[in-house]
Amino acid sequence: MHETLEFLKELTNPESIIRYGGIALLVFVIYAETGLMVGFFLPGDSLVFVSGLLCASEPKLMDVHIITLASSLTVAAIAGNLSGYYIGKKAGPALFTKDDNLIFKKRYITITKSFYERNGGKSLVLGRFIPIIRTFAPVLAGAIKMDLRIFMLYTLVGGILWIGSLSVLGYYLGNIPWIKSNLEWIVLALIVITTIPIIQTWRKEKRIS
Fold it and tell me: What is the spatial distance between Cα 155 and Cα 123, in angstroms, rounded to a whole number?
């Protein structure tokens, strides 16, 4: 049990993911977070940011060009959304009645549905920057049978903006000494900032119900 908990701890630590798996594991994690309904706990935002930062740091901890990194992660994010869409399309309305288990909670779909009702297809762009929404928005789009061409347009825009902004920001901040020495606090701040919209959406949904 202790070994399992340690593994999960490492799996949610951006630096550990990059150190142990390099770009291959990075690509898988981004795909899993956006394409598999069990990937919502993975650290997408901080992982993209830290990977960009480590591309610029000296000595280099990510031996890959920033363009290669951003392109690879963007493809993974787009492929993940597409997988989520087809999962939702196949599961359909059953998603809304699925019982809670250790990983899946119905409130995740409820939160995403509430966010989607307020923002429509733009949820696939805005939701890229919000954990849980990022995972379940494409699934919900598939469940309600959003037109695939419209879905792909929002998916392309969202994927490029999400990966491009965070990885490039990390890259250009990568050689600032203060940033490198306070990386843990910056990652924590990213987690807090991206969690606030989830809490706000959950509270609104709770008031309505």
Answer: 10
